[in-house]
Amino acid sequence: MPDTRELNYEFFNDTDALLKKIRSKNDLGVKLSTEVTNANCIELRYTEDTDKVQQAAYISEITASFTTANARMRLYKMLEWLDPSQVIYVDTDSCALLYDETNHNHKHPDKDPHDGLQFGKGLCDWEDEFKGEYYVVGWVCLGAFLI
């Protein structure tokens, strides 16, 4: 018979959150262990029996992968439209960019044609979250975010 236990790790720097997690996991009868990682962090290790975990009734891996792929394709289309010198940050569903009126390669959603890109407030539209009232004047980024 295959082992159906799954090993999980979580890190806490808040004692109340750690105790809340321990209480919730102990109700399920899972094995817990803790280790002090440093003066500000405690690692909680626990195993859950995946046979006892009830699966949600409304989860679809196909829908989740389609949604992620769709967002990625829309992001790639946006990146192809923009000049590389404009892009200062991208995430799964957002793009921060610079616009310099004096640079003829820079594109603006209100001024330049954008075949296949939708700008507005609707679902799947690219939206100016600053509403044209604020602009990026500086950007500091320490490096890539890795999981």
List the SSEs and their pairings.
Layout: E1 5-12, H1 15-26, E2 31-38, E3 41-49, H2 61-81, E4 87-91, E5 94-97
Antiparallel strand pairs: 1-3, 2-3, 4-5
- As for the number of domains, it is 2
Radius of gyration: 23 Å
- Strand content of the residues, in percent? 15-25%
Number of helices: 2
Large-scale geometry: elongated
Please give the order of strands in the largest beta sheet: 1-3-2
Integer average pLDDT: 79
Instruction: Give the low-confidence spans.
Output: none
H-E order: EHEEHEE
- Label the structural class: alpha+beta
Oligomer, anyone?
Answer: single chain
Tell me the distance between the termini.
Answer: 32 Å
**Count the strands?**
5
Query: What is the helix fraction of residues, given as a range?
Result: 10-25%
Q: Main sheet? A: 3 strands, antiparallel
Summarize the structure in words.
With 147 residues, the protein is α+β, with helices and mostly antiparallel strands. The chain folds into 2 domains: 5-49; 55-138, no CATH class. Helix content is 22%, strand content 23%. The protein has helices spanning 15-26, 61-81; strands at residues 5-12, 31-38, 41-49, 87-91, 94-97. It starts with a strand and ends in a 50-residue tail after the last strand.
